[in-house]
Every structure is written in C-alpha cells, then in structure tokens.
Amino acid sequence: MKWIQLPLGPIQTNAYILINNKKECLIFDPGSEGKAFNAYIEEHSLKPLAILLTHAHFDHIGAVDEVREKWDIPVYVHKKEKDWLTDPALNGSHRFQFGKITARPADNLLREESKLVISTFEMDVLFTPGHSPGSVSYYCPAAKVVFAGDALFAGSIGRTDLPGGNQDLLIKSIHDKLLTLPEETTVLSGHGMTTTIEREMDSNPFLNGF
C-alpha cells in the first residue's frame, strides 16, 4: 500500500491518494484543480473508490464534485459539518478572495469513531475537533500513516481563529487521539511537509511548551 501527496490550489492544500496493490484508491481532501487531479488518476490507471474529507473548509472541498462525478464515488464527511459543503459562510470561502466554493451534500456522514472498511482499506476514524467542529483523522495501520487534515502539522497545529475553532479542544484532540498512535506513524497534513508522531512528540512547540 502506498500514498501520493498532491498540493493543489492557490494555498497548496494537500490532497492525498492511498493506493492498494489492485490499484484501487481512496482520495482525501481534493481541494482544487479537479481536472488535473482526475488526469493524474487516469494517467496512473487508478480506480477511485471514495472521497474522504478530514473536514469541510473550502480549501479541502473545491474539487469534490468534479472528482466525484468523474468516478461516480461517494463522499464521506463528519455529521457536524454536513451543511458546510453547500454553505460558503460555513466552509469559509466567503471570507477569502477565491469566490464562493461549494459542493453537493456528502453521501455518507461519519457519526462516531469507528473502523472504516472500503475494499482492502481498513482505517480507524478518529474524531479530532478543534480546527473545526467536525474534523476527523483517518489512521491506516497497514500503511502506517494518519491523514490528519489541518489538526497537526510539522512543528505546528491547525489554526483555531475561524468559526467553530477551539485551541484547547484541538490540543486535547492531538494529545488524546494522535500522539497515542505508534511513534513511527507518518502524519499526512493538510498543508506543508509530512512529519511523524515521534517528531511532533519531541519537538512541536505547541505540544511541548517550548
């Protein structure tokens, strides 16, 4: 099992593709540039099975409909953000200069922490609010990765100054749900470079009081 990182759009939001040995794949946070994203999938002869959203801020959902319609696949988001896809005021796009960004409602709502199984992919859905009310992280033990969205970054944490943000809750989410993962786990963040749980435990100033 392998993963691909594709920074997309004007603020370079990381979309990810997780691929199994049958060339089936899961798509995480296709935030922009849907045509180019679909071309990449076609070029590598991949078979998408689903779109999984870590949260529904505008920079993570901009290409959702273009990708969903191309491959006829379902979209997953946490129930706390079920209305964010259709509402620019909730997803934040009305605050910035990128126009009103929306997508059709999700096909599946994540309601609680659970194990999500799609074909050969098995992931633990971790509820990690704080950056937004419905933020989730997807931990895939087989690939030794966690798709953390905008909860945890290399040397930093997600912003909490947008509506629904809560820094104390985010710190608690990171400590309780992410830093308890195996230290060798690779953290695939919504922006910037990848990191590891061990590295953030040792050196992240937001988590260690440096």
From TrEMBL:
Transmembrane segments: none
Enzyme class: hydrolase
Family matches, as Gene3D superfamilies: Ribonuclease Z/Hydroxyacylglutathione hydrolase-like
UniProt GO MF annotations: hydrolase activity
Cofactor(s) of this protein: Zn(2+)
Organism domain of life: Bacteria
Any Pfam family matching the protein: Lactamase_B
EC number: 3.-.-.-
Metallo-beta-lactamase domain sequence ranges: 12-191
InterPro entries referenced in this protein's UniProt entry, alphabetically: MBL_Glyoxalase_II (IPR051453), Metallo-B-lactamas (IPR001279), RibonucZ/Hydroxyglut_hydro (IPR036866)
Keyword annotations: Hydrolase, Metal-binding, Zinc
Coiled coil: none
Protein name: Metallo-hydrolase
